[in-house]
Design goal:
The chain is α+β, with helices and mostly antiparallel strands. It has one domain. Helices cover 34% and strands 20% of the residues. The protein is built from 7 helices and 7 strands, in the order ββαββαβααβαβαα. The strands form 2 sheets. The chain has a 4-stranded mixed beta sheet. The chain has a 3-stranded antiparallel beta sheet with strand order 1-3-7. It is globular, with a radius of gyration of 17 Å. 26% of the residues are buried. The N terminus is likely disordered.
Length: 197
Amino acid sequence: MTTVPQDTLLLLYHTGFSVIPAPDLNVGRRNADFGQGFYLSDDGAFSRRWARTRKGQTTYLNRYTLDLAGLSVMRFDRDRAWYDYVFANRAGREDALAAFDVIVGPIANDTLYDTWGILTSGLLPPETALRLLCVGPLYRQTVVKTEKAARALRFLGAEPIPETEIEIFRAVVREEEARFQAAFAETIESLPDLADA
């Protein structure tokens, strides 16, 4: 984990059912992985793949740039500090990094795939849960946490994603999840504290 800001301009995406030129930082769940804030991805293909449909609504891919100059940025890797932060937020504890403007780090795989609740059960030692959270592809999220960061977020526009396209993307996700489930099961079988249970 590093706390060194990088003076770079990020191109970011947010998929949802609204055009969002000015995000409300208080709308998101407080107990999400990185606490309350506006969640974005730097991967446009990923954002499209995880788009959903809702009857009577249009799905949009919102595009932004975020200028990190002058912002305090916390960057995580898949490590114990990341794990501890994610699970403290999910447990509803006070956000230990609320002073940071932006947090960048991996998306926990149980946010994306069905892991049967095992990772948030509290029954696994942190080292085991962390190892399981590292299974599968690594996707990153960027979370705008403060109004200062929100002012540095520039809206570029939004485009509708056709339902036919979303169906194609969802098929790709189903294939990816099948590969994940196989790798997840293989990892569980290799863990001594689970193999003996």
